[in-house]
Specification:
By secondary structure, the protein is α/β, with parallel strands linked by helices. The chain has helices at 12-18, 23-29, 37-45, 63-74, 84-91, 130-143, 160-166, 180-187, 227-231, 250-266, 268-275, and strands at residues 4-6, 31-35, 50-56, 78-82, 99-104, 120-125, 147-151, 175-178, 194-197, 214-218, 235-237. The protein binds S-adenosylmethionine.
Length: 276
């Protein structure tokens, strides 16, 4: 593959890639930026389309990078050797990663979510913090849940901050986009339990043994889970708190709820042992 050598930070391609830090530009292009060789390899192994690959000369000889360059060619992408200054410009870091990939985004609609082949989907209503969203995507991957359904006006899972927090899990966790209205209508066809997490109930999460497949609904960081979504839950649960905190962080609450709800149906510890 012909590798371009780019040394000027004002090169038009570099300017275009830099613009991907803006949501508007990510939406227009359908692309997003991933930092680090490990995450780029993850994208490659999971078949995501690699449109640009920027790397520093110091990594050029690595076999893994060579594989990424070859993969970029099969995706009809562009591989570029760039300077440290350009990598710093693209990644906003003083000590930037020496490899940056630009991949195509993948979103799904609710048609993708089939109750008969699902164990658990996490439903996030108007999640606003990209760090929370990325952490939840990583947790969904870790527990082997099926994916994330974003309801209403949510932050972008493909923002730099969210992608960083996913640590590569974004490639293996399907993301569904929907509106509250569409979600409520679709939920009528769901065959398992629909669990709402909220402070507006006294039901302890340990009292509920959910029927698979599960929809686990989490609320917005400020407003919590809306009345409309609480209404369509088969159970609402609360994670009891003893101190003065009035709630848990959204991603922490999601992690605790996922482990608690999935353990009986999924047997996480057994699954891990069998892969060791
Ligand atoms: N002020 C909001 C409220 O009244 O719900 C707090 C929202 S909390 C930061 C964000 C989300 O995390 C909640 O909507 C809920 O899904 C979940 N959450 C946080 N703490 C929880 C708890 N103790 N019990 C159940 N869910 C909790």
């Amino acid at each position: 593959m012909a590798i371009k050598l780019i040394t000027s930070p004002s090169n038009p391609v570099i300017k275009d890639l830099k613009a991907l830090e803006m949501r508007k530009r990510r939406k227009e292009t359908g692309l997003f930026l991933v930092e680090g060789l490990r995450s780029v390899i993850e994208g490659m192994e999971l078949g995501a389309t690699l449109k640009y690959l920027a790397f520093h000369q110091s990594t050029a000889e690595k076999t893994d990078l060579q594989n990424c360059i070859a993969y970029c060619e099969t995706c009809k992408g562009m591989a570029m050797e760039v300077t440290s200054e350009i990598l710093a410009k693209l990644s906003h870091k003083d000590n930037p990663q020496s490899v940056i990939g630009v991949f195509e985004q993948r979103f799904h609609s609710l048609k993708y979510v089939a109750p008969e082949t699902s164990t658990c989907w996490v439903v996030l209503e108007q999640v606003r913090d990209p760090g929370n969203l990325g952490t939840i995507i990583r947790t969904v991957d870790a527990v082997g849940a099926d994916g994330v359904i974003l309801v209403g006006a949510c932050c972008d899972p493909y923002s730099v901050e969210a992608v960083r927090a996913t640590m590569g899990s974004l490639f293996s966790v399907p993301i569904v986009l929907t509106t509250q209205e569409e979600f409520i209508a679709w939920r009528a066809g769901w065959t398992g339990d629909v669990i709402g997490t909220t402070l507006q109930t006294s039901v302890d999460f340990r009292e509920v043994t959910p029927k698979k497949p599960i929809l686990l609904m989490m609320g917005n960081e400020q407003a919590g889970l809306s009345e409309a979504l609480r209404q369509i839950a088969t159970h609402c649960i609360r994670l009891p708190m003893n101190g003065r905190a009035d709630s848990l962080n959204l991603s922490v609450a999601t992690g605790i709820a996922l482990y608690a709800l999935l353990e009986p149906v999924h047997n996480l510890s057994k699954a891990e042992k069998s892969t060791q």
